[in-house]
Amino acid sequence: MIRERKGLGQNELARRSGVSQSMISQIESGQRPEPGVTVVSKLEKGLGLLHGALSAPEGQDDSLERFRRSEYGKDMAVTDDELEMLRAVNWKGPMEEAPPAAWADLLGAIRKRRSRS
Fold this sequence. Notes:
Number of domains: 2
Largest sheet: none
Number of strands: 0
Shape: elongated
Structural class: mainly alpha
Distance between the termini: 31 Å
Order of helices and strands: HHHHHHHH
């Protein structure tokens, strides 16, 4: 869970996002499985994520998790922030089922670009 990986409790996320702790609890427990766009946007902001990160396609999440656990991901020491940035990329087509090497290439290109700025 992203909130826990970032070391935040529900109350702290509620304070940062403006979404009530009870609503966060309901979302996390599945009692409110589809929060509205406004709530999702507030949660992304409270978590320090890019817009769209929480609504990435399921296939993309699976592909990214495989990348993170792969030798490529381990060798690159992918950070949580980098993983969230990659999740925010709204891929359609081949990246949804991308092999770890494709994600490694993309992250390498992003890191190279960032080091130039």
